[in-house]
Design goal:
5-stranded parallel β-sheet; alpha/beta; Molybdopterin biosynthesis moea protein, domain 2; 3-stranded antiparallel β-sheet; 175 residues; 8 strands; 2 domains; Rossmann fold
Length: 175
């Protein structure tokens, strides 16, 4: 049986002041329902809401032979609270993907040791649900067309903006 809490009990449970709880209610930010004219809550809904408020840290791999691109992406992604591993090698990227639990890969198509298409094929073979964002300066190339057939979630044309990266991360973090 679900325990129904009054406003006072919910404020006490959350360890916040009643005016703060009212403000959350007015802004529609906390789950509640009305019984008569009184707000009511359940611990289950409050607990789920609290869980949803926690930042969801992701492990992200950046594969690009350009050190500036790697460092820019790392700076943007870590500022959003995620962990980042960078590599300039397609072979190393393939090994990292096999051995690690990544949530997203930013992948350049032009790498010195193997093309990004080969890395993408390996990702899709072994980690079929791992989302990949292709980052390229050649969006109209045949290599790009072949990559799109394998299904990356997005393509970013170089140069990209901080806002574009943050938008992708936001989409990734949405359940």
């Amino acid at each position: 049986m679900k325990q129904v809490l009054t406003l006072e009990e919910a404020a006490q449970y959350l360890k916040i002041a009643k005016p703060t709880l009212y403000r959350l209610l007015e802004d529609g930010k906390i789950p509640a329902f009305k019984v008569g004219n009184q707000w009511r809550f359940t611990r289950e809904l409050i607990d789920k809401w609290l869980w949803d408020q926690l930042p969801k840290k992701k492990n992200i791999l950046v594969v690009d032979d350009d050190n500036v691109i790697c460092m820019d992406l790392k700076k943007i992604i870590t500022s959003d609270g995620h962990d980042v591993v960078t590599t300039k090698s397609g072979e190393e990227a393939s090994n990292l993907i096999d051995d690690s639990n990544f949530h997203l890969v930013f992948l350049d198509l032009m790498l010195p040791d193997m093309d990004g298409l080969e890395v993408l094929k390996r990702i899709k073979e072994y980690k079929t649900n791992l989302p990949v964002v292709i980052i390229t300066g050649y969006p109209d190339s045949e290599l790009m067309n072949q990559a799109l057939e394998l299904g990356p979630i997005s393509v970013l044309k170089k140069p990209f903006s901080r806002k574009q990266i943050q938008s992708l991360l936001k989409v990734l973090s949405t359940p």
